[in-house]
């Protein structure tokens, strides 16, 4: 069965370190998204991609970057982790404007 | 201005009652709307989507869309304790083509 996988599930890192969160989908979807979820804010869009070599900034993109070198993967990089980036991160994929399929999430703690 | 608004709750209903969850959106160009359910510590899962004005029913769930009033609702009939979760409303903005989420409504079904 097709799926979307995030890794790691949990990550603890120190302030200032570079961190990369992986997202891999086997749906063959063109659209991929990264959201963060914090209490009181719901799901906020960080970055998204509509295809290979395409990336776009979402509403909370500062301090994050993505790259799309193939259809299956959209890694999210925190260039210099900050405590404000402690959150739960969800990757999702879709085709067209069909519903999103979500990964299981990555809980990131920045100390 | 938040594009998708939801009351954060908690909304408490007795078992067997109808739970009514509401959502308003600001983008008049929005074409499609989604309801996701999220259990604590889990990823969002799709319950229903609706594109046209009126009602759409699926089992115990009914989604209602009123584009003139920019209002979307989700009714859950015969509520069960297992329905206790956070319900997220989302829309594909007509101008942005991105899925934007509300902050979610916490539903608590009391046995």
Coarse structural class of chain A: mainly beta
Unreliable stretches of chain B, pLDDT < 50, 5 or more residues?
Answer: none
Strand % of chain A is over 45%
Strand content of chain B: over 45%
Write structural notes for this entry:
The complex is a heterodimer of chains A (111) and B (111). With 111 residues, chain A is an all-beta fold. Chain A is built from no helices and 11 strands. Chain A has strands at 4-7, 10-13, 19-25, 31-38, 42-51, 54-57, 64-66, 76-78, 87-94, 101-102, 106-110. In chain A, strands 2, 4, 5, 6, 9, 10 and 11 form a 7-stranded mixed sheet that branches. In chain A, strands 1-3-8-7 form a 4-stranded antiparallel sheet, with no helix packed on it. The radius of gyration of chain A is 13 Å and the shape is globular. With 111 residues, chain B is mostly beta strands. In chain B, strands 2, 4, 5, 9, 10 and 11 form a 6-stranded mixed sheet that branches. In chain B, strand 7 (61-66) and strand 8 (71-76) form a beta hairpin. Chain B is globular. Chains A and B meet through strand 5 and strand 9 of A and strand 5, strand 9 and strand 10 of B.
């Amino acid at each position: 069965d097709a799926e979307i996988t995030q890794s790691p599930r949990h990550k603890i890192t120190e302030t200032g370190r570079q961190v990369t969160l992986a997202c891999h989908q086997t749906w063959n979807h063109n659209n991929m998204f990264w959201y963060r979820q914090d209490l009181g804010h719901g799901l906020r869009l960080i970055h998204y991609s509509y295809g290979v070599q395409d990336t776009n900034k979402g509403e909370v993109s500062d301090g994050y970057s993505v790259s799309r070198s193939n259809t299956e993967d959209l890694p999210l990089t925190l260039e210099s982790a900050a405590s404000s980036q402690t959150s739960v991160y969800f990757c999702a994929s879709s085709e067209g404007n069909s519903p999103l399929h979500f990964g299981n999430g990555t809980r990131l703690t920045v100390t | 201005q938040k594009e998708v608004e939801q009351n954060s709750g908690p909304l408490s209903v007795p078992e067997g009652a109808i739970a009514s969850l509401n959502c308003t959106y600001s983008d008049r160009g929005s074409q499609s709307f989604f309801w996701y359910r999220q259990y604590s510590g889990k990823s969002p899962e799709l319950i229903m989507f609706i594109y046209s004005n009126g009602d759409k029913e699926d089992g115990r769930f009914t989604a209602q869309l009123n584009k003139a009033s920019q209002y979307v609702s989700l009714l859950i009939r015969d509520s069960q304790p297992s329905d206790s979760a956070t319900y997220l409303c989302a829309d594909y903005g007509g101008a942005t083509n991105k899925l934007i989420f509300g902050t979610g409504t916490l539903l608590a079904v009391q046995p």
